[in-house]
Amino acid sequence: MHPLQRIREKESLLVIGLMSGTSADGMDAALAEITGAGLNTRVKPLGFVSLSYPAEIREEILRLASGDAGGSRDLCLFHFLLGELSLEACRAVCRQTGVSPEQIDLVGSHGQTLYHAPAAESYLGRPVRGTLQLGEASVICEGLGCPVVSDFRVRDLAARGQGAPLVPYAEYLLYRQADRSVGLQNIGGIGNLTVLPAGGAPEDTFAFDTGPGNMVIDQLISRMTGGEQRYDADGRIAASGRISEALLSWMLDDEYLRQPPPKTTGRERYGKAYVDALTARGDALGLTAADLAATATRFTAACVLAAYRDFCPVKPDELIIGGGGSRNPTLLRFLRDLLPIPVRLNEELGFDSEAKEAIAFAILASECVHGCCNNVPSVTGASHPVVMGKISL
After folding, report:
1. Residues 133, 216: one domain?
2. Which terminus of the chain, N or C, has fewer Cβ atoms within 10 Å?
């Protein structure tokens, strides 16, 4: 029997979702039992692990993701290295849950985004759009002996979409409510907002990137600690500083924040060059490192407010926070100070905030092998629904 036919005929599937985000902290792996397909999909999370990258691997990711570094040798070897790290994460979540790797039916791997250009850039005399996620799926396929779905974003981009955000499809399946409009704010390296209108269909969903999530904060913390810390643990450094209204005003005068959806962003906008300019302006204002961290953390919260205020045709009744930023009490306090609606954590609904994106790619993989369209054109701007993902057998 063909492997895909076998999968389609099973009542439920054991699926691993893999995610390596813009913060480049590590590889996340979530194991879920998935039953059904389309709007009948039901998901039971079984386990989650996050394997931190060694410093040299994270540094290489950031170097290659800068947009002006790396050659064919680097990209080739990194592609296969990340495939090996993805396989290690799959095996780790199997150990955690007591599930044999041979029992896994399917893997959905997002890979690591190295460059994302949803707006056309001039290249060799032509306007070209593109997106690049690396992490060789065949390495995972060979190691586990099951189909792997990868390279999700390119099909939506080919259909004239932004190729992002992709998680809203899974969010619709998991979080929709008949009588309440739900807002879902993920705060990874980049922040993204999804709104599910009460009783809405998938095409009523809208979502977009709100701006930087942890990305700018993390870079500042790494610089001020000489690389000893990758992030502001418990928001302590930001809590010890003061917010500079002058610097915050400069940060909020941001073309991206004024741009209407559909829109996505990433390290190409809020990476090293942005933090260089931010640090220089902070130095000119006489700010301490803690002041910079406090102001950058407030900026992330202010970006969420701007998204809610300016670009939500349906205002959510509550905002549910996920991603690594949900572990930052200072950021959560700023969000609750600024937003006029209740701000809750995924854990209050029985979900794991950090596993959310990995679970989403498990769902997207399951939908792909069942032949179900798994993008949301109202979110990405694609001209029509498509089946995203390339299947390795």
Report:
1. no
2. N
> Are both 93 and 175 inside the same structural domain?
no
Contacts 24+ apart (CB under 8 A), 225-228: 227/55
Please give the pLDDT value at position 368.
Answer: 98
Query: What domain range includes position 128?
Result: 3-164+354-392
Beta bridge partners of residue 49, listed in sequence order:
29
Q: Are residues 323 and 240 in the same domain?
A: yes
Same domain, residue pair 174 and 240: yes
On whether both 268 and 341 belong to a single domain, the answer is yes
Burial class of residue 245 in the structure, from the number of CB atoms within 10 Å of its CB (0-12 exposed, 13-18 middle, 19+ buried): exposed
- The CATH number of the domain holding residue 25 is 3.30.420.40
- The answer to whether residues 39 and 113 belong to one domain is yes
pLDDT score at 58: 93
Instruction: Give the pLDDT score at 101.
Output: 97
Please name the residue that has the structure tokens 């959560």.
332
d(CA 252, CA 255): 9
Pick the last residue of a domain from 314, 329, 349: 349
What helix, strand, coil percent values describe the chain, rounded to 5?
45, 25, 30
State how far the Cα of 362 lies from the Cα of 56, in Å rounded to an integer.
Answer: 28
Same domain membership, residue 92 and residue 34: yes
Q: List, in order, residues 6 or more apart from 59 with CB less than 8 Å away.
A: none
Strands (E), 8-101: 12-20, 26-35, 42-52
Across the chain, which has 393 residues, the per-10-residue mean pLDDT values are 90 97 91 96 96 95 87 96 98 98 98 94 96 97 98 98 94 95 95 96 94 96 93 97 98 97 90 96 97 98 98 96 94 98 93 91 98 96 97 97
| Same-domain status, 271 and 297 | yes
Q: What is the pLDDT of residue 339?
A: 98
Angle at CA 19, nearest 5°, toward 89 and 71?
Answer: 95
Domain count, the chain: 2
pLDDT number for residue 22: 82
Question: How far from 263 is each of 37, 89, 258, 328, 382, CA to CA, in Å?
Answer: 28, 31, 11, 26, 12
**DSSP for residue 243:** -
Q: Find, among 254, 246, 311, the residue nearest to 281 by Cα.
A: 246
- Give pLDDT, residue 354: 87
